[in-house]
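Quick one, T. Sequence first:
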Amino acid sequence: MSEVAIPIFVSSGAFKSRSVAEIVGMALAGGLRHIELGSGTDWDPAVLQPVRKTAGQTIQYLVHNYFPPYETPFVLNLAAADEAVLARSREHCKLAIELSAELHAPFFSVHAGFAFSAQPDELGKNLTGVQRFPLERAHQTFVESLRSLCLFGDDRGVRVVVENNVIAPFNLVGGMNRLGLCATAEDILLTQAEVGSPNLGFLIDVGHLKVTANALGFDREAFLDKVGPHVAAFHLSDNDGIADRNLPFGDDAWFLPRLADFPQATLVLEAYQLELDQIRNCCQVIDRARSRVKTV
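Structure tokens:
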């Protein structure tokens, strides 16, 4: 019995431009019809114009995290201790959910919260010296944010999907994670249980998972087994296990054999700064992997 293949989406970060208009143009020219609009795009007062012009007819879109971008950037954090940052983060997510509904996207995906206060240019670096607050406090704030957003999304037919955090070895505090939520399977299952909404799902970034499993010493395969029932999507890229580098990959990538276990999950290529041929090659690698039938 054959099944209709779920399309492979390409992250806006995969293109060699930060301009949404240019990204849309390159996608059209390259025959790419499924695009995730995510972090790393430049603000423009008309940033949504090319998206709205092509949505539904020539390109199907997903909205991810910090999109649309802002003229004055900020760190989106649904677990923020700063009330102004928290309010702005929640408001952004509501706007992104409404945009997802407008674009007929099935879900809006957002990064799990942080237990620190940082500036945009500090992300991805050593964060152990920035202002921190208790991870447990961040978790409770994050759960409150998600409960509200799941209700908001449900009213608009949009699921809320949370991406697992990356914890690099250089960001451990006393050998432990004190910076990011939803980094382990236990974190994700606790969040799922406490939010208690069927409108909540999870996006597993395999690059984040590889780095975090290495830093915290857990088995990434066991992680996927535990969170499997709650997985709605994947971000696909590779790295060296030390830092999240969003590299392209070939048929030997560690995560590829697992894709057949998640036939209903949305797959997003999130390797960065690629040539069009590299994008196509990675998409072909993904397509081959998910179509394999596991043999016992």
